[in-house]
Amino acid sequence: MGVILTPIFLEYYMLAFFIVFCSCLFQSCWYVLIKSSSNTITTLIANVFGCLLYMPLMLLAGKDIYLLKNIWWLIILSGLANGVVFWLVAYIFRLGSDISFITPLRQGFVILSSVIMSFLIGIFVHGKVNITALATVGCFLIALGCFILPILNFHEVKIKDYFNKITALCLLVGFFAWLSMYLDSYSLKSLGAGLSPFRKACVFISPFRLATCVGILPFLWFDKIKLGIDAFNEKVDYKFGLIIGFSISLAYLLVCSAYSLVSDVSYIVAFRLMALPMTIIAGFIFYKEKVYLGKILGSIIILIGIAMTALG
What we know:
Elements: H1 7-36, H2 40-53, H3 57-61, H4 72-94, H5 99-126, H6 133-148, H7 165-190, H8 197-225, H9 238-259, H10 265-272, H11 275-287, H12 293-311
């Protein structure tokens, strides 16, 4: 089961690991800033800016831009799924939840969704599983670490405490985040082997951000009609929107470059969780959030899981 790690194959995985590590720096920036401006209009501004900022990269693609005609519907579906993710994250933070509680919980569901769906798709669609046993164990360890991170006191842990609205919303975020990444990975690989990973990312990133904007728009109406929140009348810090747009788009540009280097999207999902320890540090520095045993133990388990996945 899985893939054989030849020296060249392993080199690609290590390159993907390094690329995603760099993206995590910018991903952590988004986690911190969205906490400061948790409304739907800010996420829309961020994605519009990201679309415009990286549109010139499409010029680097030249005539390869015409390859988008084969995957445009996948980009739209991915953008819609990503729009759901952005709105749900903003909504959860609007409920007043701790950044270091919400982020690991939803990411734990992302990695679980990714591994489970990879097995199902591999078995029933491709006839084989493209993730190794060691990497699978690593992914489950990462999920375990994610669920341990929010624990304040191990003596007071009750499973029933996880059965609440926040957990349900994080579960939804996890699924739609996996769906978006799976569609993106499939889209980029469909562009053909003749293009370099970075060239594929240049073709992809701006249309993807545009599709995400389309995915966010319906939630502006939902916020107003169902929640009584008029996003356009809320106080919006455009500086935050621009910084978030730059950081998330640059982070995902790097991630898109890494998709073509691995056999299964679960590897990238796992590598991206390096951002969690960075987020905990950011939460402590910028919001004076407490660092307790759960965060320390969870971070260690996550790092061990990431190492196993990278070597698997």
